[in-house]
Amino acid sequence: MKNIVPEQTRVYLPIVDHDDVFPVGRVYCVGRNYAEHSREMGDDPERDPPFFFAKDTTCVVPSALSETTHIAYPMASSQFEYEVELVVVLGKGGRNMSLEQADDAILGYAVGLDMTRRDLQSQAKKKGRPWEVGKSFDQSAPIGPIFLKTDVLKEQLSNAQIGLKVNEELKQVSRISNLTWSIEEVISKLSEVFELRAGDVIMTGTPENVGPVVVGDTMRAWVDHLGEINITVTD
Known about the structure:
This protein is α+β, with helices and mostly antiparallel strands. It contains 6 helices and 18 strands. One of its GO terms (molecular function) is hydrolase activity.
């Protein structure tokens, strides 16, 4: 028996100082997990339960720390926006996970971007439709190399700075401590609606001041202790 069409290419993320790589499974995203971003998007920033959406695995663009990655301006949009995020990758799965189990499931961390076709997302929201058209499209999730979890790194990230510059102009800056829902809470809540698996990727939310980029712009995104990635938009 053979495939009737060619298999799609599998996506892998490199691991810092390690020969192994991380095979990307499902990609989950958390909506509005910083209070100020909730306000700028017109929501109440109180601790409503986190809500989730997904990107396809093929959205992921592995992005090296030492070089510039190019992504194309997406089709069908005139409002292409950045969202810098702390990314968590899972080495274990489960359902209805406790906070302790959620913490134990974390394999490592990376810096990433949840690129968004904001105009298409806004149109979908107005009509009560799913967000995929605005969120899940080619090259919409550049992600840096994975730093494996250690007790020291976990502590460092608890109040690490997260930020983004466009053409070296500061656009987003906050602290991981400003997450409305902690990393462990996000994983635990997500496991109440999906059975999580090793290989899953979770983008944990973006700070305030999201905004647009155009062809030729370069974004520099970072999380302290996880390095930075540089992404240039092409036509």
